[in-house]
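Final report, results section. Input specification for complex C-07:
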Amino acid sequence: MKLRKQYPFYFVLFALVLYVVFLVLPNLSGLAYAFTDWSSYSTDVNFIGLANFQTIFTPGEQYLSFITNTLIFTVWTTLLKLILGLALALLLNEGVKRFAAHVYRTLIYLPAVLPTLVVALIFKSILNPATGLLNTSLRSLGAGALAKPWLVDPRIALSSVIGVDTWKGVGYIMVILLAGLQTIPRDYYEAAEVDGANTWSRFRHITLPMIMPAVMIVTVLNILYGLRVFDIVYALTNGGPGYATDVLMTGIFRAFSQGQYGLGTAITSILFVFLIVVGYFVIRLLQPRPIQE
Amino acid sequence: MKKQVLIAFLVMMMAALGSVAIHAQSNVTLTYIASQGWIFQSEQDLGQKFEQQTGIHIDYQIIPSDQYFNVLQTKLNSGEGPDIFGGQSGVSDLAVTYNVEKNAVDLSDQPWAKQEDPLVLGQSTVNGKVYGLTLWDIYGTTWVVNYNKTIFAKYGLSEPKTYADFKALCQKLLDNGIQPLYEPISDGWHHVLWFPENGPRYEQANPGLADALNANKAMFAGNQTMLTDLQQLKEMYDSGFMGQNALSDAYADRTKTLASGNVAMILANLTFPQQVEADYPDVKADTFGEFVIPLADNQLLNINPAGPTKFIYSGSPNIDAAKQYLGFLTQPENMQYLLDNTPEFSSLPFPGLKSKLLPSEQAFLDAHTAADRGIVYQTAVTYVNPQWIDIGKDLTAMFTGAMQPADVLANIDKRRAQLATAAKDPAWTGEAAATPSS
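Structure output:
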């Protein structure tokens, strides 16, 4: 009996060793470097306490705006992808005939499989204020007032990046939520209809609680993705104009590019704490409760 | 018979030894890493010629520019440097960025070190020792305001002597439907040029300022000439002189844009007209004239004697072979080949070579004698070059109103302090805090 319990452990032992050696230990040593002046300009590495963190959290430094932008990006992309993804999943689950549902599902999911760099370069062209497809179309339709400098106006650049990322990621979320919807037994809906429940009541009391596990998964995935976003921001705007769309990961990239490794790992540590804390609380909040009979 | 056999045996032994020696020589491979855009096909052609002559093979390893510094630093700090590495010369950066006194070989005794332009050689010299060979077009890559002479003639405009003149001519162009200036801000680096390239003007207004900045005895913040430069740059943007789409304009479109005739000026290399003609043969190079950056009423020519430079790694096992390669490159016929076959080059900092500068460009350079020239601040002042992109982001924020010109200067000081402290620069780690410069 004891051997039966230990048996699986032997199978995972090797993977666990690799995981600890190549992931856990480097991460922990990375945390240690956050308290040093490690840089490419000197072979000496000295302990400097919280100096790096002081630099990051000093008012007036750009790093605070990186944190703000990261949180704004995360919240909005999570909400938009969740709401739009759920709406599309409900439509495909109920409102569209079978064959058409397959076609729409494929089309909506397609952007998710495109490389992020490709999507960013395409949208950089589409959103060009002078020659981009979007603005030239708007002007030709007589809606020139709606043509904006989407990626170069600091007031709307971050919103534009959020929009592009939502377009790219909503299909992936939709597929997960659709899978969750298709596990709900039809009996519950039929029973509710018999009891006189309307569409909204059925959604609120049956659909939503039953897909909460899927909602939790996509919410956590979106939050983790949002906090770690880099490629779409870097490719679309490189954090600009100015610092308007800079996020934590672009800040980390820039610190490492400048050879300021200690500062870079300090920012990484802050991101690590965000990921742990936010992920934990979201999971606790969205933990599915037992369904009352 | 025995004697003949012995002689034949000795001859065969000598032939075998000779072939071993040649074979051993041809087994030498020099690894040469450089940033993208620093090694042209013409140099690789010369590398093949060098190999044919000496049997020494050159392994060119070109690294994308945004990763190059990190890759190089990692190799140097880990003691695994290549035989030859490229680096941006500049006295202020050589010691700090590349630690040449530890990582590079002293090349003071090489024949070419006595022939190279002293101004250029000085930028690869630390404590009296020459560490690098700069085979780069220093004068042709001078950043000047290129203007369309046809457009200027049409509206009766002439080269400005003051900022007020420049502002007036820009306004006149704008009033007549011509975009005065093409400024590709989206690339993140070009618009920065208007600031450190005006270094000679700052030095003229405050003699000794560069040395004071390097000694941490002066600061960028509060310097009135620098503040004026940035305020005028912002005024140019706010007035629409850079066009409506400056934030999304790209450097790659510069020749197309100026060839179109819709834009009158651009801050570009002295040899920009040749680039336009190469891309658009109908637009001749002599369509364009040039004048110096007019911000803060500047009339001095901005020279950057620093450029991509070749260093020999001190830990290389093939130092002699590497010196041989550099000596080969600096043979007159090889430098002329490099010059003739590199479209980006119009001159090299060595005497006796036939340059490709236009007569008007040469006259422009000659008109600015030594007294009318100065060294740009990204070379003359420490810790400016490494923060180029950050300055670019600050300037973009300044254009969009998120930052003031004074804030840009303050941020430059802040980042200089960070970089200097990381490099353990004694001027920051041991000296008293600097006071603002006048």
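The radius of gyration of chain B is 25 Å. Residues 2-26 of chain B form the longest helix (25 residues). This concludes the modelling results for the funded period.
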